[in-house]
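Re: Re: C-alpha cell formats

Sure, here are both.
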Amino acid sequence: MTLQESNLQFVFNDMHWEHLLKFDDETDFKQAQEAVQGTKGVDFSGIFEKNTLVLIEVKNFRGYRIENKPRMVGGDDPLWLEIARKMRDAIAVIVGAARNYPHQATAWNAYLEVLRNKRKQLHLVLWLEQDAPISKQQKYRSVADEEVFRRQLKRSLKWLTQKVDVANVSTTPFSNSLTVSYL
C-alpha cells in the first residue's frame, strides 16, 4: 500500500503490514475530533508482522530548519509534547472507534486486540525529515539537540510503551517492509 504525507511517499509491503490506515483522514477520527475540540491524530496506523500496532506521525522539516529549531530544543511549543499528545489521542480514538463506529471496525478491533495482548507490542514512530547540518559545529550541536529531543519524547510516552523511535529515510526501523522517498 502506498500512502503520502508531507511530500513523502511511504510504500508499505503488504506481506508485512495489515490494517493500514491514513489515520487522520478516517471518518471515525474526524467524528472524535468534532466531539472533543483539540483532538489530534497521527498520520498512519497499521499492524506490522501481525503482532505490533504501529502509529506513525510524519514531520518534514526539510527547507524549514530555522523555523522549526525552537520546537526541537524546547521553546514555547515543543515538538516532543505535540507528538506525545497525538499518540495519546490516537489511542483514545482507537478505543472509542472500536466501541462505537462501524467505518473501519475490522482495523479498530485488530488494533485493540494488539493493545490488549501483553505479548504484542505498541510501536510509536515520529518520522522526522530535516536538512543536513552545513558545518561540523552545526552537526555536533544538531546531534546533541536531537538526543535531548529523543529522550524527552521517549520519557513522555513511557507510560504507553518503551518502543518509541525517531526515524527518517536513512534510519527506518522497518527497512525490509517500508520504503520512503521524497516526492
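Second one below.
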Amino acid sequence: MSAPRRSLTLRVLALTLAVGAPLACKKEASKPPPAEAKPADDGYDYAAMVADPVADEASALSEGPLAQRAASDAPGRAFVGDLIAGSLSPGEEIDQEFTIDPARCYTLIAVGGEGVVEVEAAITTVAPVRGGETTLAEDAERGAVAVIGGGEACYRGGETRTPARFVLRVSEGAGVVVGQLYASEAPPVD
C-alpha cells in the first residue's frame, strides 16, 4: 500500500472509531417479536380495578333513575360539582362541598340502588368541626330516592355566598347511592 493511500485509510479508520460508526455494513439478524409485556408485580390487582361492581352500578343508576329524576326535577339546570357515589351501610354518609350562590337556584337528587330502602339528603353549612354545622334543607320523602328543591320549588340560599355541603346518608338497607347537585345558571355579572 502506498503512503498516501495508507494515510487516508488510517484517517478514515480514526474518524470511524471517533464517531462510533460501524466499520462494515452488516445485515442485522431478524429479531423475534418482543414478548408480550407483563404488568409489574407491584401488589395491585389490575383485573379487580377494571371490574368494579360499585362503579358499574353507580354508572347504571346515574344514567337511569338519576337522569330520569333530573329531567323532571332539575330541567335546564347544570351540574354543580361531580357526581358522587358510594356503597353505604346504615349510618354511613358521603358528602361534597360547594358554595351557595344567592343568584342561583339548587336541586339535589340522590338515588339508592338495590338493597337501599331509605336515602336521606341534606344541605348544611360547613363547620370547622363535624357536627357543628346547621342544616339548611333536607328531603322530606321516604324511599330510595331523595330530592331537595325539585321542580319549581328549587332551593335558594341566603343573600350572601355561603360555604355549604350536601350530605347523602343511608338510614335503612345498604347498597350503592349516587347523588348530583344541579343549579340554574347564574345571571351574568354587570
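The two ends are 92 Å apart (CA to CA). The first helix runs from residue 3 to 19.
- S.
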